[in-house]
């Protein structure tokens, strides 16, 4: 008897249609183009906190990344349209400017998330009001990675 | 919701495999004359069904099976799929066609007189050509201006090998319904650097080298020899 076969076949034919085009959505990460900075005390060589800190992009003083808060770790977004991104850091009425020179490369992430820029830090230079020195620990700012890139030594 | 769908998919597959095995084992009938010799013209409903599930996709394909020897079929399929959507990350358009050709073996060797049912396992080679573009893509920046650009129209070729398995049964005279599960492995893709295809016609998710898929076929047999 093949009738049960036919019956089962037709039931399953319909049932199998339901899951046919299910796909797994991917979670897309945001804010993946920021340099991660750790603040270190020049005197103690340990992590430190900078009180009353305001940070904004050079020539973009009206849009602040940090506004009068205490910080020990910074996330500084790099620009897509320039090979140098500069920030003004102020703390208790002292001002410093820091420039990040970087190369960027556009990369396709996935069909859900589209494209991103990955960066490689070349050089950093800065003014010396309260910044003593800077070291690049890990020069790559890549999508999906979470590494500290730079240490800034504070007087 | 999607998890439930995926779970359901796996349960369905397991159930199908179980049923198929059981049926294959239980059918124990007298040997009867061969299947009618001929070729079928058919339609694969996977494309229209994908359209119902995902409005961004439009596609359909047509197939033929030719009974080249006892329990051995040639299976050929040709179709198209267009994809078009506009989402935050990018706007995308793709128009493409595909061809598949392969052989299938029927593993149901015994038959009931007057009834034609097959459990087919096959291997096929597939190739797709599609023209795709992203009329806009945006890379968001949390502080500095976003980057907006476009990817111009370009052609992508994809080749793959496909394993398939599933039953097919004659529901009315010369009219066959069938479904099958496919496992596809891409073996070649050119021009992949800038933008991978969202869907490759006939293959599926363009980000993957390995894809699963389903076919739901309705075929009409045109016999040339009884």
From TrEMBL, chain A:
<dbReference type="InterPro" id="IPR045607">
    <property type="entry name" value="DUF6452"/>
</dbReference>
<keyword id="KW-0732">Signal</keyword>
<protein>
    <recommendedName>
        <fullName>Lipoprotein</fullName>
    </recommendedName>
</protein>
<dbReference type="Pfam" id="PF20050">
    <property type="entry name" value="DUF6452"/>
</dbReference>
<feature type="signal peptide">
    <location>
        <begin position="1"/>
        <end position="22"/>
    </location>
</feature>
TrEMBL record, chain B:
<keyword id="KW-0732">Signal</keyword>
<dbReference type="InterPro" id="IPR046111">
    <property type="entry name" value="DUF6048"/>
</dbReference>
<protein>
    <recommendedName>
        <fullName>Outer membrane protein beta-barrel domain-containing protein</fullName>
    </recommendedName>
</protein>
<feature type="signal peptide">
    <location>
        <begin position="1"/>
        <end position="24"/>
    </location>
</feature>
<dbReference type="Pfam" id="PF19515">
    <property type="entry name" value="DUF6048"/>
</dbReference>
């Amino acid at each position: 008897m093949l009738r049960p076969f036919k019956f089962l076949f037709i039931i399953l034919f319909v049932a199998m249609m339901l899951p046919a085009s299910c796909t797994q959505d991917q979670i897309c990460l945001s804010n993946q183009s920021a340099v991660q900075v750790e603040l270190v005390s020049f005197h103690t060589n340990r992590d430190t906190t900078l009180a009353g800190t305001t940070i904004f992009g050079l020539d973009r003083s009206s849009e602040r990344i940090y506004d009068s808060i205490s910080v020990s770790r910074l996330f500084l977004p790099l620009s897509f349209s320039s090979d140098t991104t500069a920030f003004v850091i102020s703390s208790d009425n002292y001002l410093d400017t820091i420039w990040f020179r970087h190369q960027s490369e556009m990369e396709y992430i996935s069909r859900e998330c589209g494209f991103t820029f990955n960066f490689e830090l070349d050089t950093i230079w800065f003014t010396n009001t309260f910044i003593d020195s800077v070291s690049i620990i890990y020069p790559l700012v890549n999508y999906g990675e979470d590494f500290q890139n730079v240490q800034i030594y504070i007087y | 919701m999607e998890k439930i769908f995926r779970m359901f998919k796996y349960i369905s597959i397991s159930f199908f495999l179980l049923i198929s095995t059981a049926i294959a084992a239980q059918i124990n009938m007298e040997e009867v004359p061969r299947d009618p010799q001929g070729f079928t013209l058919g339609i694969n409903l996977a494309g229209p069904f994908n359209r119902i599930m995902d409005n961004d996709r439009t596609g359909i394909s047509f197939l033929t099976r030719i009974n080249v020897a006892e329990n051995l079929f040639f299976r050929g399929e040709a179709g198209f799929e267009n994809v078009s959507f506009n989402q935050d990350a990018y706007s995308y358009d793709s128009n493409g066609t595909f061809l598949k050709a392969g052989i299938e073996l029927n593993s149901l060797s015994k038959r009931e007189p007057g009834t034609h049912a097959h459990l087919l396992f096959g291997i096929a080679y597939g190739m797709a050509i599609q023209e795709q573009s992203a009329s806009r893509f945006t890379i968001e920046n949390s502080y500095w201006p976003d980057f907006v650009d476009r990817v111009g129209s370009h052609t992508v070729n994809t080749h793959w090998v496909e394993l398939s398995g599933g039953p097919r049964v004659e529901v009315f005279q010369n009219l066959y319904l069938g479904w099958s599960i496919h496992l596809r492995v891409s073996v070649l893709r050119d021009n992949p650097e800038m933008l991978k295809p969202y869907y490759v016609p006939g293959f599926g998710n363009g980000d993957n080298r390995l894809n699963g898929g389903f076919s739901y076929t309705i075929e009409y047999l045109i016999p040339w020899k009884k």
